[in-house]
Design goal:
355 residues, Dihydrodipicolinate Reductase, domain 2, 2 domains, nine-stranded mixed β-sheet, 11 helices, 37% helix
Length: 355
């Protein structure tokens, strides 16, 4: 590579600045353009990043800056619009926040846009770079658990914030196996009007093609993770096998209990540690197109499809087969079908968040 890859970052809130500063700190990139609908945010970010182009209109900034990487960290309702802007800008790769969409119909549209344009995309399920997440993966690959039969994930936060993370890491721990069907239940309508619209509580089963069963639970009724103090990081993801189990806590390390091994170790969600390797793998994928980023869009799409199938099952009942053949608006289904009853909390700390 003879010169740096040019990056445009749209959305300059907390996550947008994590991306922008990490791109800028990597020798393979330069932040050539920044955008936010809030001029004050643009001014503050420009003072730190010194971009060549700045503004409040994403299309104008992208067309002027002509990036190699179009990165957006906006609210979820703007996903398809941002993908179109990234493609129009001539970017070779689009980096986006999760969730990838707000419905299976929109996700299918985005997938079609990317496939037809040939633009690659990555989704920031970057927690997998954490030392504690990677330690559990290492234990699984090493065979300490014997034949793995179950993967699981729980989080007290709501679906559009956290469920795609849970499913992504469950799939990773299960060797990226394809899911064949799901079945789920949901409760609570309060968060359906949130900026990250979600049922207050959703829980279900995932049957993977390799015979492994996934069990997932997210929201107000999810169990406590007493090993973690900070409510937003009360996430547990793990695997059970014939010879034991291993699991990671987003905010509190990892542990393994197996026939021939027992142990625990440190680790916590840390953007300063997790973002640099995520960004470096973007550079590696641009340098060598034959490689694939661990957080590639197609993998994230499979996880999102599972999440939307869980919503369909909760709204309509019964099992839902995968892959989904037709798009739908799963949140609209939930709004029309979920009973208007207050959700029941599993721990007092959740009452504040779901009031």
């Amino acid at each position: 590579m003879s010169s740096k890859y040019r990056v445009v970052v749209v959305g300059l809130g907390k996550r947008g600045m994590h991306h922008a500063q990490t791109f800028q700190a990597n020798a393979s990139f330069e932040v050539a353009g920044i955008c936010d609908v809030d001029p004050a945010r643009v001014e503050a970010a420009a003072a730190r990043l010194k971009p060549a182009v700045q503004g409040t209109d994403a299309l104008d900034v992208a067309l002027e800056a002509r990036p190699d990487v179009f990165c957006f960290c906006t609210l979820p309702q703007l996903r398809a619009d941002m993908i179109r802007i990234g493609i129009a800008s001539g970017a070779r790769l689009i980096a986006m926040e999760k969730p990838i969409a707000l419905s299976s119909a929109e996700a299918m549209e985005i997938r079609k846009l990317l496939n037809e344009s040939g633009v690659r995309a990555v989704v920031s399920h970057q927690h997998r770079y954490g030392e504690h997440y990677r330690k559990v993966k290492e234990i699984l690959v090493g065979g300490a658990l014997g034949r793995v039969h179950t993967v699981y994930g729980t989080a007290t936060g709501w679906m559009m914030h956290l469920l795609s993370h849970l499913i992504d890491y469950m799939r990773w721990y299960n060797g990226e196996a394809v899911a064949e069907w799901v079945m789920a239940q949901a409760a609570g309508r309060g968060k359906l009007t949130d900026a990250h619209p979600s049922p207050d509580h959703i829980a279900g089963f995932i049957h993977f093609a390799n015979g492994v069963r996934g069990i997932v639970e997210c929201g107000a009724g999810a169990p406590d993770v007493p090993e973690v103090d900070y409510w937003w990081r009360k996430c547990r993801i793990g695997a059970q096998g014939a010879d034991g189990f291993a699991e990671v806590f987003t905010g509190g390390g990892w542990r393994v209990v197996a026939k021939d091994r027992m142990g625990a170790g440190p680790g916590s969600m840390n953007y300063d540690l997790d973002m640099p390797p995520y960004i470096q793998d973007i550079a590696a994928w641009l340098d060598e197109p034959a490689r694939t980023h661990p957080c590639n869009f197609e993998s994230a799409y499979q996880g999102f499809e599972i999440m939307m199938a869980l919503c369909r099952s909760a709204a309509e009942g019964g099992q839902v087969a995968l892959p989904l053949r037709e798009g739908a608006d799963e949140l609209a289904l939930l709004r029309s079908r979920l009973p208007d009853r207050k959700v029941i909390f599993s721990l007092e700390a959740s009452a504040k968040e779901y009031a």
